[in-house]
Design goal:
single chain, alpha+beta, Cytochrome Bc1 Complex, Chain A, domain 1, 6-stranded mixed sheet, 16 helices, globular, Insulinase family protein
Length: 445
């Protein structure tokens, strides 16, 4: 499974468009056996198909975290009702096709990529994996052990560990606190029978839609999808829930660790998909990234790779990350920068340059069929509007410095701060009370 690749694609695709190449025909949607099918003609000989199952962490309790991830991995790694894993993969390899799956906090994707001449054979294997997974006990034990090894490895990577820690603290009591990969405890408890039953439960038409980026005949698509869906139940009506996040006070949580440096992450509000200022805030955070990098690294030498980002999902938030040996000095610089940005806003030149940079990146990212399909999928899930992928450019071009500055002021406020490292080197009250305008604060003197 290309899980890390899937997550990177998911992050980029929320803001992508599919107008990178001139299209001979327009994208369209149709309903087949109660399931929405979104079709984007590609203008090339590559076929990309993505079946999306909505829900993510809303589909299972925290105690079962990791179950959907294992279910997705097992589709191609545990054999099918018709053949074992090796036979399946050998056929796939002969075709030169790819079938993979991945999961996020909001949805999972089962994807197929092949050349048009191999579509018939590749589609049969795709349907087999999607609708007839076996979850063989022996193969399941292998992927489960791989998952546990991966969890241990992730916990040893500070950048990943701090982000998981931040999510657990910031979203405590919410579904978003759950890591889709699970925990050592939750994954250890899962069995092949558990995962098979779970997958059968989420594979429903009510949670599903399909994206096709390819030059295929409409009737052929409709016929193949109808046949695939014939054995899939309708399921109960499902709505993916969105949740706004706002900290009403700044908090600080520390985890003492022996690390070469100290890791800090802050989480605060962001507009939810569909809000009027969503795109404005996206641009604001990108400009703030540049300001933050300049102030923290270039001007003060406090961190090698400071970051800020707009983490988009059904609970969208702004995040700030830094690794530093001087956490107290960092928070002083950060607070001052936020104060300056709120007071002065963003300049016309900053906005003009960032809009150009952003849109260039959108076109660049969207050169492949896979990226186009990912953009359509993410916008359909999060915005309930796959067509947003085609009109995003116009929305971005219309944004003004005032709109972008106001969006930053509206959402950047109290922060949930988490810290991993030497707790003797940090003063928590500087993070919870702020450092600005405090004459008795030695950091600011």
């Amino acid at each position: 499974m290309k899980k890390h690749m899937f997550l990177l694609l998911l992050t980029a695709s929320v803001f992508s468009i599919n107008a990178a190449n001139a299209q001979t025909t327009q994208p369209y949607e149709m309903t087949v056996s109660g399931v929405k099918v979104i079709v984007q003609p590609s203008g090339n000989d590559i076929v990309e198909i993505q079946t999306v199952i909505k829900g993510g962490v809303q589909n299972y309790p925290a105690a079962k975290a990791g179950i959907e991830s294992l279910a997705m991995t097992g589709l191609t790694e545990c054999g099918t009702a018709q053949q074992d894993k090796n036979s399946f993969k050998n056929k796939l390899e002969k075709l030169g096709a790819q079938i993979s799956a991945g999961t996020s906090k909001d949805y999972s994707v089962v994807r197929m990529n092949c050349i048009k001449s191999d579509f018939e054979g590749s589609w049969k294997l795709y349907v087999e994996a999607l609708t007839m997974p076996k979850y063989d006990e022996k193969e399941f034990a292998r992927i489960k052990q791989n998952a546990l090894t991966g969890l241990k490895r992730m916990e040893s990577i500070p950048d990943i560990a701090i982000d998981n820690f931040a999510d657990r603290v910031a979203f405590e009591g919410r579904a978003y606190a759950v890591n889709p990969s699970g925990t050592i405890e939750s994954v250890t408890a899962l069995t092949a029978a558990d995962v098979k039953a779970y997958y059968q439960g989420i594979l429903t038409k009510s949670k599903m839609f399909i994206v096709v980026v390819a030059d295929l005949d409409r009737a052929d698509i409709e016929g193949k999808v109808k046949a695939m869906l014939s054995g899939i139940k309708q399921g109960a009506p499902f709505t993916l829930k969105k949740s706004f996040f706002r900290p009403y006070k700044s908090t600080f949580s520390a985890d003492s660790r022996e690390l070469a440096t100290n890791y800090i992450e802050g989480v605060t509000s962001g507009p939810q998909p569909g809000e009027a200022d969503f795109d404005a805030f996206n641009i604001a955070m990108r400009i703030f990234y540049d300001r933050h990098f300049l102030d923290v690294r270039t001007n003060n030498g406090l961190s090698y790779a400071p970051q800020t980002r707009f983490a988009v999902g059904t609970t969208s938030v702004a995040k700030v990350n830094v690794s530093t040996t001087q956490p107290d000095k960092y928070i002083a610089v950060f607070d001052k920068l936020v104060d300056k940005t709120k007071s002065g806003g963003f300049t016309e030149d900053e906005v003009k340059n960032m809009k150009a940079t952003y849109l260039t990146g959108v076109y660049y990212r969207n050169e492949t069929n896979s990226a186009q399909a990912g953009a359509l999928a993410s916008n359909e899930v999060l915005f309930n509007d796959w067509k947003r992928t085609n009109n995003l450019v116009d929305h971005i071009k219309k944004l003004t410095p005032t709109q972008i500055s106001d969006a930053f002021r509206k959402y950047i406020g109290n922060m949930v701060w988490v810290y991993q490292g030497d707790t003797k080197k940090v003063t928590p009250t500087l993070f919870t009370n702020g450092t600005l305008h405090k004459a008795d604060n030695p950091v600011m003197q």
